[in-house]
Amino acid sequence: MEKVKHIQGTIVAIPVNDIDTDQIIPARFLKVTDKDGLGKAAFCDWRYLDDGSTPNPDFILNNPAYAGASVLIAGNNFGCGSSREHAPWALIGAGFKAVISTEFADIFRNNALKNGLLPIIVDEETQEQLFSLADEDPSTSVSVDVDAQRLTLPDGRQIQFPLDGFSKYCLLNGVDQLGYLLNLDDEVRDYEARNPQRVATTA
Amino acid sequence: MTNNGRPRTLFEKVWDAHTVRDQSEDSPAVLYIDLHLVHEVTSPQAFSMLRERGLRVRRPDLTIGTMDHSTPTTPRNELGIIPVADAMAAKQLDTFTQNCGDFGIPMYALGDEHQGIVHVIGPEKGLTQPGMTIVCGDSHTSTHGAFGALAFGIGTSEVGHVLATQTLLQNKPKTMAVNVEGKLEEGVTAKDIILAIIARIGIGGGTGHVFEYRGEAIRGLSMEGRMTVCNMSIEGGARAGMIAPDDTTFEYISGRKYAPSSADWDAALADWGRLPTDDGAAYDQEITLRAEELIPMITYGTNPGMGMPITAAVPAPDEERDYNKKIALDKALAYMDLQPGQQLLGKPIDVVFIGSCTNSRISDLRQAAKFIEGRQVAESVRMMVVPGSQQVKRQAESEGLDAVFRAAGAEWREAGCSMCIAMNGDQLEPGQYAVSTSNRNFEGRQGKGGRTFLASPLTAAASAVAGVVSDPRAML
């Protein structure tokens, strides 16, 4: 995983509550065996008209003024539904580096952090302000300091956001969690010695 | 069983017994995983990660695979094979076979007599047992909590972590007691209980929590009913839902393939008997529903929280005080092409789907078949019945349920996830309405442009016969 220390980018808003992972990436795109090329499937059924290929002119991500936006502002409870990690893979593929909402579904949040996509939790007032800013001026840019857990708005207002210490360490250092777990092999062996296995699938 | 005398919940007991390393300020807890279920859709990139790093699967003997999501449910051909029409799906299934073979993981392939939906086969094989930690790259892993296991869905990176280390990094969730007191009326089922709970708390109401379902109505459910309830915990935002094991649980497990042998059975029972929440243990939140007040439930919107009693009217966005909820409701009703104040009873439907990890077990099929027997599926309705596993299918066929469904005009299919996730060609056409026993009514979930009403198998069967959304209680 690449290090994520600072994020600077323009914003785009999808002010819809409870955006589920079936909207972020519909299930028919999950037949892949790698992570490549999923960006074009992001929000596919909102992005294209019924024929599946003509861009829906009313959908914000098709508006050229917002092309290149890397920070998504979303309604409450973003990423609910399935455990598919294809959701953060698709968002990253579509150019996003951070998502801002008042709340994230647990599994989505975990999956996003493991891929360097930063879920930023803000209060409703800030969320509303960001919705308005995105709507009024597509060139609105925000910056994020991961170490300081600080989001800076164009007017200079600074907002602290929660981020657990371990995820922050992994983001700042580009470390993935598997390396950490592999180093605990002795402790895992001790645990296994003390706790007999419950079932044996190979029996 | 107390810890330093402090009363603990079921969840805390299972959690505490599985921490390889406790949570600290610097890092989440490291949790040992007793059973890892894998399937073809969320595992390929995890196996690739292992290959890139030259790692093996640490405990193939704690891992089991099945094909379910992208598998066809069409009948076998003359060679006894279920043909896969879609090249990408075929490649994904081949990749899964290769991965399980290379890493020594036992796996039930398409066509195998044990194949089925991952959350149906775990319990039916006796692999799912009280007090275990169980994970799978699938959010409906919460199903296994019905046995008093801590079971939750994980992403593909985490699938890789468990394959390689048999552990996971997890922050300790909070707990919510969900009490369902009293007795259910006739025609009201486990599915109605969970739809009512989600309608009450909302789709994000359980975020950050593990549910523990308690109370007389929960105790009164069969294991299959309990699985239906726990299955949809994730639709209320909770990664896991648990029910304390009791005699109903033990009776279900006894004699199954992977259940403790007779020599170990008494010791297992003693362990399991210590799992229920201690008197005086505290939950972070608590809600209570009265079972007598419940009637069959149905969803009207585009997430499982948008549900109501089947006799109610579709809510009006203008009466919603919260602006964001009003917008969401407007959007949902536009997608569903429904009007505020409209009754769903009597609404014509195109498809009825009985299946999915929520409602595809033998008791679900028996309930639907009993209702359908001697009746006909309406001309205008396509009814699909998809058993959750090959074992469920054989059991149903031995009881003649397949003949009942076929005689009524329904399709009887091979086991799999099928139209719940619509990855395998079983899907709604744009604009179609379905009454579905599955778990998600998200936009396009059952096929692009398709519209889903979630309900119980009984409500689904009644609606299939009438051709319109119907209250089964009037037809029992």
Detailed description of the structure:
The complex is a heterodimer of chains A (203) and B (476). Chain A is of the alpha/beta class. Chain A is 31% helix and 16% strand. In chain B, 31% of the residues lie in helices and 16% in strands. The longest helix of chain B has 17 residues, at 87-103. Chain B has helices at 10-17, 44-53, 87-103, 118-124, 156-165, 190-201, 216-219, 223-231, 247-253, 262-273, 323-336, 362-372, 390-398, 401-408, 457-466, and strands at 19-21, 29-32, 35-38, 63-66, 107-108, 133-136, 150-153, 167-170, 174-181, 209-214, 240-242, 285-290, 297-299, 307-309, 351-354, 382-385, 411-412, 433-436, 451-454. In chain B, helix 2 packs across helix 5 (156-165), helix 6 runs parallel beside helix 8 and helix 12 runs parallel beside helix 15. The model of chain B has no long low-confidence stretch (mean pLDDT 96). With 476 residues, chain B is of the alpha/beta class. At the A-B interface, helix 4, helix 6, helix 7 and helix 8 of A face helix 2, helix 3, helix 5, strand 8 and helix 11 of B.
Question: What topology does this entry show?
Answer:
The complex is a heterodimer of chains A (203) and B (476).
Chain A: E1 6-14, H1 21-24, H2 44-47, E2 71-74, H3 86-93, E3 98-101, H4 106-114, E4 118-121, H5 124-136, E5 141-145, E6 150-152, E7 158-160, H6 165-173, H7 177-182, H8 185-194
Parallel strand pairs in A: 1-2, 2-3, 3-4
Antiparallel strand pairs in A: 1-5, 5-6, 6-7
Chain B: H1 10-17, E1 19-21, E2 29-32, E3 35-38, H2 44-53, E4 63-66, H3 87-103, E5 107-108, H4 118-124, E6 133-136, E7 150-153, H5 156-165, E8 167-170, E9 174-181, H6 190-201, E10 209-214, H7 216-219, H8 223-231, E11 240-242, H9 247-253, H10 262-273, E12 285-290, E13 297-299, E14 307-309, H11 323-336, E15 351-354, H12 362-372, E16 382-385, H13 390-398, H14 401-408, E17 411-412, E18 433-436, E19 451-454, H15 457-466
Helix pairs in contact in B: 2-5, 6-8, 12-14, 12-15
